[in-house]
Amino acid sequence: MTTFKEMTVYQIYPKSFYDSNGDGVGDLQGIIEKIPYIKELGVDMVWLNPIFPSPQKDNGYDVSNYQEIDPLYGTMEEFELLVSLLEKEGIGVMLDMVFNHTSTEHPWFQQALSDEGKYRDYYLLRQSQEDGSLPTNWQSKFSGPTWAKFGNTDYYYLHLFDVSQADLNWRNSQVRQELRQVLSFWLSKGVKGFRFDVINLIGKDVQLVDAKPDEEDKSLYTDRPIVHDFLKEMNEKSFGRLSNVVTVGELSSTTVEQGKSYSNPQNRELDMVFNFHHLKVDYKDGQKWTRMPYDFIELKKIINEWQVGMNEGNGWSALFWNNHDQPRALNRFGHTGIYREKSAKMLAAAIHLLRGTPYIYQGEEIGMVNPDYTRLKDYRDVESYNAYEEMLKKGLTKTQALEILQEKSRDNARSPMQWQNSTHAGFTKGTPWINVSEQYKEINAESEMSKKDSVFQFYQQLIRLRKECQIISIGDYQPFLVEHPWVFAYKREDEIHELLVLNNFYEEEVLIELPDEFVNEKSSILISNEENTKITKKYRLSPFESIAILRQK
Length: 553
Ligand code: TEU
Description:
Elements: E1 9-12, H1 28-33, H2 35-41, E2 45-48, H3 76-88, E3 92-97, E4 101-103, H4 107-114, E5 125-127, E6 147-149, E7 155-158, E8 165-167, H5 173-188, E9 193-196, H6 226-237, E10 246-250, H7 256-263, E11 272-274, H8 296-312, E12 318-319, H9 329-333, H10 340-352, E13 357-361, H11 382-393, H12 398-408, H13 411-414, H14 445-450, H15 455-468, H16 470-474, E14 476-480, E15 487-493, E16 497-504, E17 510-513, E18 523-528, E19 538-541, E20 546-552
Parallel strand pairs: 1-2, 1-13, 2-3, 3-9, 9-10, 10-11, 12-13
Antiparallel strand pairs: 4-8, 5-7, 6-7, 14-15, 15-16, 16-20, 17-19, 18-20
Helix pairs in contact: 7-8, 10-15, 11-12
1-O-alpha-D-glucopyranosyl-D-fructose binds at residues 58, 61, 98, 141, 161, 197-198, 250, 252, 288, 324-325, 383.
């Protein structure tokens, strides 16, 4: 059986994957129809973004029932069928557990609103401060204050995200028990993995306090020590009892120390964690809604810090460039013109050969790029609309604000999967819920599958190599050429082999002096995106070239 260190996960955003019934929204039956495609890629697990009933204010991250399937996506029978068909292909299903908050339409919240019974303690309700100001001065991740009036009462409820996403009170043991029950329910349906949304935000202090002027409010609710207690308990009383369940925690702004702690197997919390620091290197002054060329040295520094730290501390990282919250990596770190395919392969190798478990976001394997929406009405995401308003308030013109959305909006990842060169890229026979990128004529799965040396084939190769070569799955990590301004390089090592990985992130050719031990008959090219290349002492890396050289020790 493939362990989580040898596996590759494929992320499916169900709404935008494949629409089988023509209502414009992707669905479970659509995923079923695309199983042959997923199998062909060779992944071991698929992570589905939330498919539970939801008012869809934040595309399903506002759950109103944890134990049903949203009719938008299909039925429980279809879900069961999907699980069993994937299982036949040796592919597990990972579900997205949004346990930091529920939708305000969840019966718990509704019940809490209607009487003073036990459900009030399921949420974080506080009264205003003595001077009448809100319980704390915290700012929501989606703009505005984190507090909203709780019905007709004197209370406010906490929402770190949208006003429709009320934070749960994890200090209440009944809440924790209910959530474990949710996990049991899905485990009994054959689910093999869980991704825990913003899991490092679940532990709030008893006394919630204002952030001081020189303090970031997020430090007051992120990675609080009690999060570890909650995770240990959930592990012990739930998935930890089973040997074959994979867990990954999504960590909002965190530290390497915390990452190790959550994922070191000795702590019995989670198998691995996502962090986002490497994807903030194009944020000006730490602010997302800005434009700035990305800082390559900083990118390398962050990846190296995490790789080295997690390696030393026996932690485990989820590796990724793309997900449903991020603009396409090709637009940020690769090339969208003549080097699109080559840079797509380079980025793939750069991330897949690191120490950790790689995640591929739908469309990445065919080299999809941002859809370049030009009008405000092309967008759907609540965060994008709020950010647009904020930008106008700050004095940006509509054109400037739109340009920033075009680069930064989460909808860049959410445009429908491009299947073929036909209307709506073959995603739907109806009207898609969000526009298909015009680029589908050139970039689509069908043409990709018929090509030689395609991006898709390169991903297949990387997925296979991780299973075949132990050095990729569990070898140690060492940074290499740390100061190089264009090349991201590193070494991996186990008892018998050493692997040298060189990735040129630029359009310029670069001459690299290879270490002697990699230039002899015991060395060979493991994978490269360059045809007909061979190892030489003075090695010329072409634009966006990636090469991995394996040597026997
Ligand atoms: O995201 C958590 C998160 O903090 C970010 O990635 C967030 O989307 C980003 O900061 C916005 O700029 C998770 C989910 O992945 C995201 O889709 C949800 O909206 C969010 O939690 C709330 O559940």
